[in-house]
Amino acid sequence: MFRLNEITFYREELRDLALAWLALGIAFTFFLTPTGFAREFIAGALDYSAFGQTFVLSMITVGTGFLLHELAHKIVAIRFGQVAAFRADYGMLAFAIALGLAGFLFAAPGAVYHRGRITVRENGLVAVAGPVTNLVLAVVFFLPFLVTTGFPAEIARMGVLVNLFLAAFNMVPFGPLDGNTVKEWSFGVFAVVIGVSGLALAGFLLLF
Length: 208
Known about the structure:
By secondary structure, the chain is mainly alpha-helical. Helix content is 72%, strand content 9%. The protein is globular and about 55 Å long.
């Protein structure tokens, strides 16, 4: 068990966070390998330097976007008196890696589960904390994107895209995604967050 201020992280939770971060980084690296990792590896033509750079890029962008999204859920839940912890879905992590090898990308790495008495408003704030964190990270990555070049600029650009996508995707009001919970609490907050996320993502893709 590891304790940071008032936030407790359990050994199993730290393991799950680390493995989910690593699995997502691997899946995204496979997805970004232009002509396919498996084909290049079998043919002995894999550029290990480029592959290593892509892995670093994936861990920094997808990894931090995922990790801080989940930690935001946990921290806000704890602030409302909940017992909260992240649990990885190992089946979905393996599926994400397999899809990455096949040239597709889909990931549902797990979720923060919390229990205790909680109001609809508090539950909505727990849910919206993740997408809002991704929007903040998109701004953080956007600033160096404007002033850097080369590989650092590519990291920054991917950081913006990944975090805007995570914010917009998680605000979709479907199934277990954050958007459903936020919409049940406040349609206004839901509309603002999904609107900002979607418009920012579309605008960045069009301009950059």
